[in-house]
Design a protein that fits this description.
alpha+beta; 346 residues; 17 strands
Length: 346
């Protein structure tokens, strides 16, 4: 850890010195960020406060200017502490032997069933040797802003055999709205991408938090994801086509973004979701939907591809709720008509 980063954490600790610290979590140089999170019991009010800091934004010792926080209900804290207390025969002092630049350090100042406190350190992905830490991480991140969930996805993604939700090209410096897009692409790609754009092949394009999701019509429908940090002017690209990332589909989407075009997706979610907690946290709360094809819903799946999924289960019960539709509820009515027709024919 750089001396400057360590000094900032020490300043934060002094700011909280009158309170009872329960958890500390630091993500150092993680996806280019340095994030510090802590949970404290405030002695003056007997309340619980989860605080988080972007260490790169801290420029002086006036910590009060840089803190973001959320108060956690006492019953949630008590349930969490009881879960920690029940842990036994686990590795409470783990330090990964494999090192790179992305470090996760977690200190939990609650005794386990074996009267030990948890202090673990690993690099980028949660090791199988300490998977119990997932429940602690999940407790922390479910009380943080949704935009920080990406860190949790990244940390636990190796448990599912995926290192990222989408295999982005490496992040690079680029001003999405002012730099020359043509400088990223070959001349032939520019020509074909321009044709795709002019032919209105960008079927869907919507910004969700720091990502632009788009579907481009090619030999099949391809998903393009443009991840952009407007403050640092850093860009990452993904396309589900078999070509390189700087492809005609990506070019057409970047051009549409530059022209402030939006073509919103439908949003659907599963009815009666019975997935366990780990499965839920690794998926969206909803799926982006393109509409109906051959009596099936066309969605963006969690592997970054466009696929068809059934509307009904084997007992002809609806599988999906529509959570975002057109003003006229076009998708809802179309699904209702298909369900009616399928039931009549069964």
């Amino acid at each position: 850890m750089h001396k400057e980063t360590q000094n900032k954490i020490e300043s934060i600790n002094k700011y909280f010195k009158k309170d009872n610290n329960i958890i500390e979590l630091s993500l150092i140089n993680y996806e280019g960020y340095n994030i510090y999170i802590r949970l404290d019991e405030l002695k003056s009010t007997k309340t619980f406060k989860l605080s988080w800091f972007d260490l790169d934004l801290i420029l002086d010792k006036n910590i009060d200017k840089y803190v973001s926080f959320e108060y956690i209900p006492k019953d949630k804290i008590e349930a969490f502490i009881n879960n920690i207390n029940a842990l036994e025969n686990i590795n409470t002092n783990y330090k990964s032997e494999v090192q790179d630049n992305c470090k996760v350090k977690l200190d939990v100042k609650i005794n386990t069933k074996n009267k030990e406190q948890i202090s673990v350190e690993f690099y980028k992905y949660l090791p199988e040797e300490i998977t119990y830490v997932y429940n602690i991480l999940n407790f922390i991140f479910q009380n943080l802003p949704k935009k920080l969930e990406g860190f949790l996805y990244e940390i636990i993604s190796s448990l599912t055999g995926q290192t990222t939700k989408y295999e982005y090209q490496k992040e690079f410096d680029f001003d999405l709205f002012n730099d020359d897009i043509n400088s990223l692409f070959d001349e032939r790609i520019i020509e074909r991408g321009s044709e795709y754009y002019d032919d209105k092949r960008v079927l869907f394009l919507e910004k969700i938090e720091d990502k632009y999701f788009a579907v481009v019509e090619g030999t099949r429908d391809y998903l393009v994801v443009v991840k952009y940090n407007d403050e640092s002017k850093r860009l990452q690209l993904y396309c589900s086509c078999p070509c390189e990332y700087f492809c005609k589909h990506t070019y057409s989407v970047l051009k549409a973004i530059r022209n402030n075009e939006t073509y919103r997706f439908y949003k659907i979610s599963r009815k009666n979701n019975t997935k366990d907690l780990l499965e839920k946290i690794l998926t969206f709360d909803y799926f982006l939907c393109l509409g109906i094809v051959d009596n099936s819903l066309e969605i963006v799946n969690n592997n970054g591809n466009v696929e068809l999924v059934p509307i009904l289960d084997d007992n002809n019960n609806p599988l999906w709720d529509v959570i975002e539709d057109t003003e006229n509820e076009d998708l809802t009515h179309e699904i209702e008509n298909i369900i009616k027709e399928l039931k009549n024919n069964s």
